[in-house]
């Protein structure tokens, strides 16, 4: 690979990493419009514990309802990103994610270890998330008493652990 192609590959790698960061930060900021700006209109989304979603608008509607509800506070910390390219305009990403959720109405604190697998495509010189899937690796759900004490509701690596969303 010549120097120009290597430089372009590095620039594309950086653009994809920034794209994923914008997506996660927009989720944490409860900014559905910014989330939508990271996903292709026909994006495929398959997050474990949720029904498959076949387009951006459907995902944003669900995100507005559950992720943006009052009293819900999320933190998505992705790390260990590995980007591989299938060609100049298509790439795959693998990410480890720590998800932390505080739900004031249910008085719960939830932590998940999650693995993301993404497909990215470049359209008109811009990278988009075309497909994203997640698989839960671990779960810790705690309840918070009226006096502020935590007690474990569930602690396992069961991929079928229920997501507490309300």
What would your notes on this structure say?
It is a single chain. With 166 residues, the protein is of the alpha+beta class. The protein has one domain: Nuclear Transport Factor 2, Chain: A. Helices cover 26% and strands 49% of the residues. The protein contains three helices and six strands, in the order H-H-E-H-E-E-E-E-E. Strands 1, 2, 3, 4, 5 and 6 form a six-stranded mixed beta sheet that branches. Strand 3 (90-103) and strand 4 form a beta hairpin. The longest helix has 26 residues, at 3-28. The radius of gyration is 17 Å and the shape is elongated. The mean pLDDT is 93.
How is the secondary structure organized here?
Elements: H1 3-28, H2 32-36, E1 39-47, H3 56-67, E2 72-87, E3 90-103, E4 108-123, E5 126-144, E6 150-156
Parallel strand pairs: 1-5
Antiparallel strand pairs: 2-3, 3-4, 4-5, 5-6
By CATH reckoning, the class would read Alpha Beta
CATH architecture: Roll
CATH overall fold name? Nuclear Transport Factor 2, Chain: A
**Total number of beta strands:** 6
Main sheet specs: 6 strands, mixed
**What oligomerization state is this entry in?**
single chain
User: What order do the SSEs take from the amino end to the carboxyl end, as H and E?
Assistant: HHEHEEEEE
- Total helix count? 3
Q: What Rg, in angstroms, do the CA atoms define?
A: 17 Å
From the N-terminal CA to the C-terminal CA, the straight-line distance is 51 Å
How many separate structural domains?
1
Shape annotation: elongated
Low-confidence stretches: none
The residue fraction in helices comes out at 25-40%
Helix-strand category: alpha+beta
